Amino acid sequence: MIRLEGRAVIYGEVWFDEEPPAHAGVDIIEYRCRPSPIPNARTATFLSLQTDLTAPPEAIVGGFHGGCRYLVRRAEARDGLRHEVIRDAGDCLDEFADFYDGFARQKALWPADRHWLSRVAVEGQLVLSCAWRGSEPLVWHAHLRSGRTVRLAYSASCFRGMESGYRSLVGRANRWLHWHDMLHFKEAGLECGAGCSPTSRRPSARASTVSSACSADSRSCTMNARFRPRREAGSGLRCAKGGARGTRRDPSLPYGRGPEPSASRVGPRSTRPCTTETGFPTGV
Asked: Are 31 and 251 in contact (CB under 8 A)?
């Protein structure tokens, strides 16, 4: 579980099929990207991309569209790229976040949520990867790993304003990095990659298959972990019950921020499905 300090409450994030501990020590539990909703919890439904990492490498790459396969092969053969996976992500967190913030300024996106990233790193669930050419980092990826599933949380590449040859190089490096990330996670025994496809296409309600990944329903649910507030957070909980909203980033909506869930008691409600673009790089 990833523990996050809010303005008035402590949140606990659990991802995919993970279950929270019996004594979580948090006020609100957020279930991210689950295949089925949690009873009596506020739920948002969206589409995500999933890649079966148990398939042979030939089957995975065979699902890429032809142009993507060509760019990956060219990057492999001609661009002299080096793949690095940072196992102790906390040591390189500032380097990654600085790179991403430069990319975000070019794209008018929110900067990296360093607090969320640091908490994921503390729990040992953050995996950083980078495509290098010589001593220059071309592309960075940040993944969240939970159980047998890994999800792309951030992707950054800075090439705006550069000459066309360099822009093409970075575009190939981004796809090449996705592919080598897949191979790394497959070798590590992971079974599912969420949002880890190197194609530039996004999930669509009209398409059941996009590149190598199938479009599948995912859900994020929010529910109270406690029926009574903890003493030190009691006054904050009462204020939050009025419906105050903050700007804490929602990791289910990559590269943006979502509203801070209300701490009021969550009862049975109707689910209003919505479709969002999730887990895809915007740097190519």
From this structure: no
